[in-house]
Amino acid sequence: MPPEMRAVMTSVTAAGQRLSPAWHAALVRLALVWAVLLAVFVSDWAAMARQWWDISTYNHIVLIPAILGWLVWQRWPELERLEPKVWWPGLVPFAAAAFLWLLGAMSGLDIARQAAAVAMPGAVVPLLLGVRVTAGLLFPLAYMVFLVPVGEELENMLQMITAEITVALTHLSGIPAVIDGVFIDTPAGLFEVAEACSGVKFLIAMIAFGVLAANVCFVSWRRRVALMVACLVVPIVANGIRAWGTIYAAQFFGVEVAAGFDHIVYGWFFFAIVLALVIFGAWRFFDRQPSAPVIDAEALAASPLLGRLETRAVSGGKVLAALLLLLIVVRGWAYAADTLAAPLPRQIDLPAVPGWTRVDYTPRIWWEPRAEGAGHRLLGRYRDQQGRQVDVFVALYSRQGEGHEAGGFGQGALMPDSPWAWQAPGPAFGDGRSERLLGGGTAKRLAVTWYRNGSLLSGSNARLKLAVMANHLSFHVRPTTMLILSAEDTAQGPAEEAIRHFRASTGPLGPWMDRMTHVR
Predict the structure, then answer these.
(1) What residues form the membrane-spanning segments (predicted)?
(2) pLDDT tens digits for range 359-408
């Protein structure tokens, strides 16, 4: 065994030998509860682990568990001077985390399930170790939030920001360019600021790094805030500069050479360079002494506020029994709600619309929204006397949940792995979600999405999830309808005009969707 490893093992063994009986019992209970939570929610942890490993946006998360261990080890010399105590009010944050998991399980909202799966092990720390130990572990417990794979929801916004920065720099460098959403047309060719070029993965990693560095390297809150601002702004601006560099190089060396070089820089050097610049800029302002203790055990032990929060002692057995009961209730409730499914009609039809006629569906580039798990799907085309054409897609779901999510990732108007790419947000259509798509670099399509569940009519996936949660909490289930109206810009007029005329002909949209799907 290498000397360094022997030193670490010796240190760990010595720490274990000098544990007080109170710490020994508390850590055994904590390890037992964590093992149970991992077993009960293993599917959520497995799903997160796959995302950490398979999705480049979240690859940095594989380092977070080691960072958490190091943060606790930093604090251990002071923590072991405190006495761990069972604190029964800790059941409240644990119950809140369990309820969040329940809501996520009922609605198919993975981020809620995963956030709850991460929160529950953190929530049992105040319950089993007490408020004073928890105060000493406050930062590591808060840093656990970076275990949750979240951030891809920012892609479209960051695409737009990057595109605006890129076209501004392109104009400043004397290159003529026309921007249309996330597409930039230059003399060398048409460039797309795609999802992979949005910079979201570096922004998320920089935020995680910034929070860690702000705690470890700084004492002043002003300097901590300044570092976080840098970690937010610098990656976004640098990503815009990188995209501009690709376009600028393409004007002289060709698109293929510039794109190949960009992939090498983007994949290997970009984050390292940006991170080095931020560290170099912040280095001279570090104000925490390396030898200074991270927490003050004496101050925590003497804190009157923490003293007021402490309660009378409760046996560890009673607390563990309460935890087990909460887990049984939550899992049982989720299972019962998951078995609910609304009855669906045998078939649904695209109805007649005044002033419009059904015609063959023959798009220039095939477009068919994705609706996995739907009980019924319909796709058809209508044309009016002026030659305007509107494509109508309808999907009817008996329930919402895992594998049956109308607003889930990869579902809806934008077909994954197809010639179609997201271009920009579309014009407003009431509560509908409007987005512009570009097919093959030439076909421009507008798609507007609505969801119908009971009285709800909205294009917001969040509002749909809330409606489904409310239904399942009361063991009441309603079918969900997804409607997408879409059209392409043609010589007969823009897509927006065609969709607005079609909407005016259907009458009130909610009742029209209900009649079409025979829900009411």
Answers:
(1) 21-43, 55-73, 85-103, 123-148, 160-179, 199-218, 225-245, 265-286, 319-336
(2) 999 999 999 999 998 999 999 999 999 999 999 999 999 988 777 888 88
Alpha-carbon span 413 to 373, nearest angstrom:
15
Measured distance CA(182)–CA(164) in Å, rounded: 8
Sign (positive or negative) of CA dihedral 302, 303, 304, 310: negative
CA distance 512 to 356: 15
Q: Rounded to a whole number, what is the distance in angstroms from the first to the last CA of the chain?
A: 73
Asked if residue 520 has pLDDT above 90, the reply is no
251 in a structural domain: yes
Mean pLDDT (whole number) for 228-251:
90
- Helix, strand, coil % over all residues of the chain, rounded to 5: 60, 15, 25
Report residue 266's pLDDT band, with 50, 70 and 90 as the boundaries.
low
Domain that holds residue 249: 153-283
Residue 88 DSSP label: G
Q: What percent of the chain has pLDDT over 90?
A: 59
Q: What is the three-class DSSP state of 425?
A: strand
Q: How confident is the model at residue 5 (pLDDT cuts 50, 70, 90)?
A: very low
Claim to verify: residue 258 and residue 159 sit in the same structural domain? yes
Q: Taking 70 as the threshold, does the pLDDT of residue 16 lie above it?
A: no
Residue 310 CA: distances (Å) to CA of 273, 295, 304:
48, 20, 10
- Locate 225 and state its tokens: 């805030």
Q: How far is C-alpha 243 from the chain's CA centre?
A: 24
Task: Please report which helix (H) or strand (E) contains residue 436, including its range.
Answer: strand 433-439
d(CA 18, CA 79): 13
The predicted-structure confidence for 308-346, as pLDDT tens digits, reads as follows: 888 777 777 888 999 999 999 999 998 888 787 888 998
Over 50: is that where the pLDDT of 423 sits? Answer: yes
CA distance 391 to 361: 8
CA distance 500 to 449: 13
**Of 77, 55, 484, the residue nearest 294 (C-alpha):** 77
Any domain includes 493: yes
Taking only the tens place, the pLDDT of each residue in 108-138 is 888 999 999 999 999 999 999 999 999 999 9
- Give the dihedral sign, CA 316/320/322/323: positive
- 3 state SS for 348-404: CCCCCCCCEEEECCCCCCCCCCECCCCCEEEEEEEEECCCCEEEEEEEEECCCECCE
State the total domains in the chain. 3
CA 515, CA 440: separation in Å to the nearest integer? 36
DSSP string across 472-505: HHTT----EEEEEEEEE-BTTB-HHHHHHHHHHH
59 within some domain: yes
Q: Is 473 left (phi over 0), alpha (psi -120 to 50) or beta?
A: alpha
Question: 100 and 186, same structural domain?
Answer: no
